[in-house]
Amino acid sequence: MISVALTFLGLLFVTFIIARVIPVDPVLAAVGERASADVYAAVRAELGLDLPLYEQFARYLANVFQGDLGQSVLTAKPVLADIARVFPATLELATTATLLGVGLGIPLGVIAAVNRDRWADHVIRVFGLMGYSVPVFWLGLVGLLVFYAELGWVGGPGRLDVFYEGVIESRTGLILVDSLIAGDLEIFSNALRHIVLPAAVLGYFSLAYISRMTRSLMLDQLTQEYITTARIKGLSERRVIWVHALGNVRVPLITVIALSYASLLEGSVLTETVFAWPGLGLYITNSLFAADMNAVLGGTIVVGALFIGINLFSDLLYRLFDPRVR
Amino acid sequence: MAEVAIKSQDFRLKAWLLDDSPGSALQARLGRFYLGWRAFARNPLAMTGLAIVLALVIAAIFAPWLSEASPLEQALERRLEPPSAAHWLGTDPFGRDILSRILHGARITLYIVLLVTLLSAPFGLVVGCVAGYFGGWVDRALMRLTDVFLAFPKLILALALVAALGPGVENAVAAIALTAWPPYARIARAETLVIRESGYIDAARLQGASGARIIWKQVMPLCTSSLIVRVTLDMAGVILIAAGLGFLGLGAQPPEPEWGAMIAEGRRFIIDQWWVATMPGIAILIVSLGFNLLGDGLRDALDPRQR
After folding, report:
1. In sequence order, which ranges of chain B are alpha helices (DSSP H)?
2. Shortest Cα distance from A269 to chain B (angstroms)?
3. Which residue among A322, B73, B145, B148 is buried most deeply as judged by most CB within 10 Å?
4. Where are the domains of chain A?
5. CA-nearest residue of chain A to B238?
6. Distance from the B128 Cα atom to the nearest Cα atom in chain A, whole angstroms
7. Is residue B147 in a domain?
8. How does pLDDT run along chain A (326 residues), one tens digit per residue?
9. Closest CA in chain B for residue A142
10. CATH, residue B137
11. Which of A1, A11, A138 would best serve as a mutation to test chain B binding (most B beta carbons within 10 A)?
């Protein structure tokens, strides 16, 4: 717990330092070029910039812990409110991507392990390595070109066709869930058509990671004696592999999945830019180009906190499921 | 006759390399290297990776000679031409040859990768070795720091840093390096904890060698092989982050032929002139796949334990 708190403090310290090294003078930005020296000094004092650095940092911490990440210049709203508004889109995207990654990655990893060093293994390994190596923003563009522009199989950029925007009431902010609650299958299927491509592009990375880890975890299990015992007992090969061996890698796999989920929240920055997906990543990049540093650093803090939180959560899950670590 | 002589020379070299009781440290080292290379060369995927990385280096060094067209000079009368005999990969919106730009872009990619490695790997190595060798509060303090940086979301932090420092290759490198070193420190520490308990470290200590000398002379050289594996695997990630920053307009600035920035330039034309954005992306994919394959192969050859 202490290390988590320290990590979070470290994150805040870095964002604080970044905020201080920006070449833009925040006082000048607030008062304008022609302000007198007195006004300049007054505003400087008001912003707390005349205090020693450690006091400024303490103030900064106090603000962050009260949920005050400052005001966004771009939207003229509190950064935290902005983030709360855009976050569900990212959550929806990252979750769908993880579901794809887990659903395909685990079976592929198992198949690769069972067929170790045979062609199925090689194909799956190279397919996985491609997932590690492909630039997501490029894959997204090519995906749009092929599946949207050429074939017309999927929806284009954005979360819905313009026609459907704002039709259903937003309860959870997750369109797939909201449309189901409202019982509107037309909107649900439209949202599904829009999310499939970005989620597949984003999920490719987690598929690569999960299948690779599943393979190596399974290889460790398959050489153990209990597997031989189970085979001698006459259990079917399917049962030995998918129930006995896979059951035993469940615990480390949870950590792997949690880690990949955390990195997807981050990886969504580039994916969202390409697909005009109105989530946290697009919010951060848009703010970046408007030199809206409060919004950029606020987004960084939120993503960092989620990152740290998910790591902690996977640690706890590990302890819960694996009695040996207690 | 001559062929037989070469054969027997070849044989003698092999015998010398594989000698059970090498006469010098150099012979022993070369022998180990040879064994590692033999394991490595048997792995076709690893050799593919090596070939790709070598091709990148060659492209970077010889770019001006490999392509006659200038990567920067504009010629609007032949803009957006599809791939042809004259321009194998087509031309971009300014009429520049895309192949030439990709070849010259290899220089930027290699420059970024090397600079990040030179900044982050030695730093992580020193932190890890010092923490592992001295233990106690030094270890705790350094590893806390490492964990803090390890928990940072890399791309986002790089984004925020570059936003603050201003766009550009050097700032992108600094931002990436800042988040790249923690895994190296972790690895070096883990290795050092094992090495520290060896007899020859005690021997060096009894001879009066200082902690700094032991770390520099005995510990660090033994940590390097696992570090090399990790660095190679990380290079793929570095290339992707650098390209991502370039794509967002935060890395190398136009008209520099940086691959990520080239994709961003071609983005508007993706529907009708697909090659403009597609070609640089394939270059990124191939090169980062090369580093991944090479890293995987090195790991299997150098350290068969961790698979």
Report:
1. 2-17, 25-41, 44-66, 98-134, 136-150, 154-165, 169-180, 182-195, 199-206, 211-214, 220-247, 259-266, 275-302
2. 8
3. B148
4. 2-65, 80-153+196-325
5. A133
6. 18
7. yes
8. 677 788 888 888 888 888 776 666 666 666 666 777 777 777 777 777 777 778 888 888 888 888 788 788 777 888 888 998 999 999 999 999 999 999 999 999 999 999 988 899 989 988 999 998 999 999 999 999 999 888 888 888 888 877 777 777 777 778 788 888 887 888 888 888 889 999 999 999 899 999 999 998 898 888 888 888 888 888 888 888 888 888 888 888 888 888 888 888 777 888 999 999 999 989 988 888 877 888 888 888 888 888 888 878 877 877 777 666 55
9. B278
10. 1.10.3720.10
11. A138
Number of domains into which chain B is organized:
1
Q: Look up the CATH superfamily of A80-153+196-325.
A: MetI-like (1.10.3720.10)
Give the Cα separation of A204 and A216 in Å (integer): 19
Q: Express each pLDDT in B17-28 by its tens digit.
A: 887 777 787 888
What range does the domain containing B157 cover? 47-63+89-306
Q: Is there a domain that residue B177 lies in? A: yes
Q: Is residue B245 part of a domain?
A: yes
**Contact list, A273 vs chain B (CB under 8 Å):** 247-248
Q: Which of residues 214-253 of B touch A (CB under 8 A)?
A: 236-237, 240, 243-244, 247-250
Q: How far is A321 from chain B (nearest CA, A)?
A: 23
Q: Which one-letter amino acid corresponds to residue A268?
A: S
Residue B232: left if φ>0, alpha if ψ -120 to 50, beta else—which one?
alpha
Per-residue burial over A107-128, b = 16 or more CB atoms within 10 Å of its CB, e = otherwise: ebbbbbbbeeeeeebeebbeeb
pTM, entire model: 0.86
**Residues 162 to 201 of B: which have CB under 8 A from any A CB?**
163-166
